[in-house]
Amino acid sequence: MDINQIKLDNKFKLVEASAGTGKSFTLAHIVLRNVLEKKVKPDEILLLSFTKNTCSELRDKILSRFHNLKLYLQSHNESKIDNTLKDWYLNFKDKDKSKEKIISEIDNFINQFYKLKVTTFHAFCNNIIDEYSIEIGVTQDPYIENNIDNLYKDVIDNLWIDDFLNLNHELISAVNKKKISSRFGSRINKSFFVEILKNIDQENICKFQINNKYKIIDLNNYFNEFFYLNWNEFCVEWNKKGKELFLQLKELGKLIKESGGKSQIYAAKPRNDKFNQINCWIEEINKRLNSKNVIDFIYDISKDDLLSKYFYIENISKEINKHNLKLDFTKFNLLQDKIYKIKEGFFTEFVRIFTQLAYIKLIELKKSFSIFNFNDLIKTVENTFLDSEISNSITLSKIQKRFKCVLVDEFQDTDITQWNLIKKFFNTKNHFLLCVGDPKQAIYKFRGGDIETYLDARSNAIEVFSLTDNYRSSKKLIDVLNKLYKNGLKQSKLNYSKLTSRINENINPEFKFKDVFEIVEFSKKETDIEDLVTHYIVNFILNNKEIDINKIAILTLNNSQCLDFKKKLNQFNLPCKIQNKQNIFDTEASSLLFLFIECLLNPRSLKNITLLATSKFIEIKLEDLLDHGISNNLEILINKCITWSQELREKGFLNIVNELLINYKSSSIIQDSDLNSNLFQLSEIVEIELINNDFDLNIVFNWYKNQLDHILRISTGEDFLTKDYNLQNGINLSTIHSSKGLEFEIVLCPYLSIISNKSNKIKGPLWKSNIDRNIYVNISNNYAKVEKFKLIEEEDLFKESERLIYVALTRSKYKLIVFNDLEDTNNILNNDLLNNLENINIYKSTFEVRIEKEKIKEIFSKFQTNRLNNNLWKIDNVNKKISNVFNSDQFISYSSYSSWIRKDKNIDAVINQYKDYEDNISIIKDSNFKNSKNYPNYFSYPNPLSEFPKGTIAGTCLHKIIERFEFRNDNNQELIDLIIEELNFHQIDTSLAFKVKDAILRIINISLGRELQNKKLVDIPNEYLIKELKYDLTLSYEGRNINSNDISNCFFLDQEYEFGEEYANKINDLQIMNKGFHSGCIDCVFPVGNKLEDSKWWVIDWKSNLISGSDNSDCLPRNYNYENMRNEMIKHHYPLQSHLYLLALHRLLKWRLKNYQPHKHLGGYIYLFLKGLPDFELFEKSKSEDISPGIFISKAPLKRINYLDNLF
């Protein structure tokens, strides 16, 4: 459809955008039309999306749309304009619009672009709470934190102490012994309740109804009465129906036998009279039981026995379904209910009550400290505007009047509460409301996405449009997808609109495949799917040598499958990268490091030492150990572990792991950059825990053990996700969920044929009702009252699985390979999709599974990996917390550049900082200017930071703004908001915000000179900018100190570079004498080059030094000439700092960059004096070949870096 035909009248409209049809493109174009056609201002537009990343992408798309139209109007260059925009302009210009007027309106929009509100729904609700806190009733500034696992744990810990441990000891014993089958574990314990509490608190569709009566009851009496009543009711109903049930079960045994089946439970002629056995059991209990002591019999009555195994409906139903029989047991429903209540009902009641008590405590605690998670933000706004009996019409009106155009992205992921709020606010006669989504890609039910909400909204939309032009996949591949989905998505009952490919296939001739869709058939009984896929890829790469392996993706159902493929691909030396992030404690490195810690704790444990010796750390063959018993190698390893455990406090954990890797040079770790990286990241986390716990390895070991348990784990959130620095190439491994929104030239889908209606089996104890939107608690997975919830949820997940397949099949641009298991074809792939192909045989693959030895050699040599550096480097943003100060013999020394140059430093003091952001002030004599060459007048115009405060706080503020700002998002609301937020935080006058903004624009838009191909920071893609790169350099190996003289020697090398012999003598004044670690933080690292693998990497450091003349305190660019900056560098020991930065970068690249060569890849350092940069537009117009004032650049002196690499 033509999106120019969408009317901009104030009605609710819906655009359905199939995969690859330009959802973001549509939203950006609708914004442009609203601005230029309806004169809507930027601050009157609200665009809601679901992640910060998509918000950032949408901002870029919108800004680019306006820029492209402006370029077209100025130059008639049609290369930047698409047909949609061109057609719109040709129609629009007829309405008495001159080019100049349109360009002026575009400029006005761009200048106010920062006012455009592109935000997540959670952030939108947070803004409402911030602005209208008094009206809403939030009296305290909310503390917003979505990761509050520690709070859940504290609530349960307190509940256990206050309530659980005060119960009758027999009741406690029964609860502890009870085994259950649940999604949160098999025991009713503290971790079980932590997960319940977390799930209820973070649920955003269904609600948990609170009952305050449990706060005031005597729990022991309540449970006693509850169980006594249920026991008596069971006895009564057993006397009525027990005999008849026994006879019916004998009939079941008979029918099973007659059908040719066999049952381990039911027989036509059971050996014993099971009805009489139960009667004897009841009689025996009733002799001893009374209303006062019933609690003493809870375990005996509720444990698994004949009643539960033979008479309970769970096994009865299994046998009936297994043998496909028709036998009606409904007349025993009441008896089954009574059996349930004495077997599982009591424990369900226990879980319900304790869940109520825990949730009430959590709400009270969150309220008292004003703690909000993301869902609380939405719930607060919901309670105010949807559920409240109090009229909030004035506040509502203020919110409504602020916006005229409201757009919602990824609408299929909206839940009922979000949609109700959007309707309440903006589905009015005064708002243009347009939502864009694709119900076929609704795959986030586990995050709260609700396709029923989408379908309901669709039925109420005034107009529904469908995008049918595809800009992702080739024509031949789109033709296949059209055939596969000609009947729509059957299970989800969603229609599919036939698509038309609009991509230019002449751009990439190497991707013109004869077979764009292949079906690889296999039998899982005979073939390992990971082996099969790996062999396919090997053959494919060898037969298509021009294909870049970075263009290939394997899509899986979960992270563990990605890891399985990684192992298989590594066997053939094939590089690969996992796209999905996972918790660092779920990685292979985690179990390896746990084993090493265990060996440090118990170095004489032969079992652990043997496991360590045969692990990837050391790789001694098991047969070698078995042949020689306690071999010499094991003796050496035991002694090493003893030594390391004794040196832990002195050397630090990072250094010890480093020694382990250096000593044994494991090929498995050297060749696996992910494993190497994860080991380092974990070592760093362990190091911090050791410091925080006074190097008590026992405490840290137990803490680490808990992190391996998903339920006990408290190390969650982004800080504990595996790190990815985008320095590695290879085949892409991704879950289908993580691949949504991405595209790859070639896609392989190995697991689609295992998705069926048997794939999703739901367990309690939480059951969500789609009918009344409530959460119910029941530990049983088969109780009649939860069966309906279970069936509905399993059906919903089955439908979502169908949509997951759609997402997988629509990621490819040119070639799609699907693997189909012939052992089980009763699934969505075969029943609903492949059957739609008229001649399926033409798509079946004929590739040879067997790989010849010569081909294996060829693939190995093609991707021969270099040996990786074993040094461990600090790359993530973790602050070391050192609670106590020890003398130098008691702790690991952490030194920094700041501590080394501090004149009054105490060498042995603990330095807990990476950078010193203090402003340095230098007054330059006038003669310095007079002797310098002439400079243009604009070099005398003050820098925008002239009025900015001086001092440490001001310097820190500037660094923080630059750190947080994405350089490609210039001149928008996010930048202004960010600046104001940081100015407020650092208590600096916010009226300086626009001055700071102008300074930031200078920083990112000034040319960095010929040495860097005249690049500007804004030219560097965001994904290649690594900011705040922290590192640790080990200052000792086996206890040796590093001193000033050691370091100064390096400056006698490479005399042709900056800062040679004269600076070497200056270093000796620093009196450096350290061991342990030298900690630092590089402001920014980035590559410059046409291709990433051929780029040079540069270090950049922001300096807020003031260099002024004696007659003028302004920051004038003329003051920041080469001579003055060089003197400033020497004065503050920046040459030392820069060389340490280059050493850290050198080691990082050696470790992470394939085929790293220093002369080819190590660029140098740039010191950017923020207050000395001139107006970038005037500088650009001058076409000067000189480097701009305020920029000090030097190439990397490689001999010096090699010297330092050997020294540290």
Q: Got a strand count? A: 30
Report the sheet-strand fraction: 5-15%
The largest pleated sheet is described as:
6 strands, parallel
Low-confidence spans? 865-894, 903-914, 926-932
Shape: globular
User: Could you tell me how far the N terminus lies from the C terminus, measured between alpha carbons in angstroms?
Assistant: 64 Å
| Oligomeric grouping of the chains | single chain
Rg (C-alpha, Å) = 34 Å
Please give a structural write-up:
This protein has 46 helices and 30 strands. By secondary structure, it is an alpha/beta fold. The strands form nine sheets. The chain has a six-stranded parallel sheet with strand order 3-2-8-9-1-10.
Brief summary of the model shown:
This protein is an alpha/beta fold and 1208 residues long. Helix 18 links the parallel strand 8 and strand 9. The longest helix has 40 residues, at 219-258.
Distinctive features:
alpha/beta; six-stranded parallel β-sheet; 46 helices; globular
Task: Describe the secondary structure blueprint for this structure.
Layout: E1 12-17, H1 23-37, E2 45-49, H2 52-75, H3 83-92, H4 99-111, E3 117-120, H5 121-131, H6 133-136, E4 143-144, H7 149-162, H8 169-177, E5 179-182, E6 185-187, H9 190-201, H10 219-258, H11 274-288, H12 298-302, H13 306-311, H14 313-322, H15 333-369, E7 371-372, H16 374-387, H17 393-402, E8 405-408, H18 416-426, E9 432-437, H19 451-460, E10 463-467, E11 469-470, H20 475-484, E12 500-501, E13 517-522, H21 529-543, E14 552-556, H22 559-571, E15 576-578, H23 588-601, H24 606-614, H25 622-628, H26 632-651, H27 653-664, H28 667-670, H29 673-692, H30 697-707, E16 731-735, H31 736-739, E17 744-749, E18 766-768, E19 775-777, H32 784-809, E20 812-821, H33 828-833, H34 853-862, E21 894-896, H35 897-901, E22 921-924, H36 926-931, H37 952-964, H38 973-985, H39 993-1005, E23 1026-1034, E24 1042-1043, H40 1044-1048, H41 1061-1067, E25 1073-1074, E26 1077-1088, E27 1096-1103, E28 1106-1109, H42 1122-1131, H43 1134-1152, H44 1158-1161, E29 1162-1169, H45 1176-1182, E30 1191-1195, H46 1198-1207
Parallel strand pairs: 1-9, 1-10, 2-3, 2-8, 4-7, 8-9, 11-12, 13-20, 14-16, 14-17, 15-16, 17-20, 21-26, 22-28, 27-29
Antiparallel strand pairs: 5-6, 18-19, 23-26, 24-25, 26-27, 29-30
